[in-house]
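Progress report, Aim 2. The chain analyzed during this reporting quarter is listed below.
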Amino acid sequence: MIEAVKEKTALNNEALRAEFSILSRKVNGQPLVYLDNAASSQKPDAVIEAIDRYYHNEHSNVHRGVHFLSQLATEKFEAARETMRAFVNAAETREVIFTKGTTDGINLVANCMARSVLRPGDEILISEMEHHSNIVPWQMAAEQSGAILVVVDTDASGQLVMEDFYAKLNKRTKMVSVVHISNSLGTVNPVKEIAKAAHKFGAKVLVDGAQGAPHGHIDVRDIDCDFYTLSAHKMYGPTGMGILYGKAAELEALPPYQGGGEMIKDVTFEKTTYNELPFKFEAGTPNIAGAIGMAAAADWMAGVGHDKIRTIEKNLLEYATEQLSEVEGIRFFGTAEEKTSVISFLVDGTHPYDMGAIIDKMGVAVRTGHHCTQPLMAKYGIPGTVRASFAVYNTYEDIDTLTAAVKRAAKMLK
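Predicted structure tokens for the chain:
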């Protein structure tokens, strides 16, 4: 039956896999099986080449110079902004703020809201499945402003309890910040429904799209969120780079996040006039190469096709779930009907760290631990999980190797 499934749902991703040079290397004498994509995906040659080309032939600082290289670098940099505007379907390029990544984007919004919007008694609504990057900044904002952090329940299958969300949403709610796709469970949250409900109470909505961006087309106007954050390194791009999308009116209403060059129009010792969007939130020399690399990754994904990416990952998830179910004593965490590309599990009688260390010796890279979702792990009463997460370059053979490694590790550890 397994062979029939493999034949029926052939991935046809061999050509894509060949574009990732790192996948040809060996680890501990074994061919690399990279299944830690939720932490950070590998990079296609097109992305590496775009960054290399920039530093070899195009580098200069942007926006301020009149010479050829400065103009060229500025053109490439702003072209990258347009690429990312299209990637998330923002209405205007000024709604796309370059950041260091998802964490930076959430901190930007939380910091600015604490200074200008949140007041004592206001409420910030998040969920139990949030990454620490979507918990700690809001705790800090609450401490600074006197606002209250309210947490929506997650059920045993890893789904948001929407009845609890609606019960806790009220006229005191000023901010709803929720993950699009859970990094530890793979759950896809109904962010469009959440945004619609929150807006009825006048609350603003931020969506943590760190795991959303790699797995399909993002349409911020369809979601109708006020803010959306993502990281390039999750979506086949470079580390230390991302974007914050924000509706123009919402970004205009917030004060600057940091001060320095670029985010100003005029400076005197008496007063500074701030720059227009998006530069108001981009103090200092930006990560120019990172922006170019991120745009190359977005272009690469578009070239593959978002539908194809979703189909490949869906088939991988189904096959991995079927294969790993054969492991004696395995328990899955995150069994929501709407989920993607992540399998978290424990095997009875083993610790996730021990399992991960043994699997690594067989050349298989998985993530072990709490995945920066400690409150969620505490809810389930576990120290963490083993997490296998898939990307478009993974294969059925990768999953076969993973399953064999888990079975062998389980025998050794029990």
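Residues 2-31+306-413 form a domain with the Aspartate Aminotransferase, domain 1 fold (CATH 3.90.1150.10). The CA atoms of residues 170 and 358 lie 49 Å apart. These observations will guide the mutagenesis work planned for the next reporting period.
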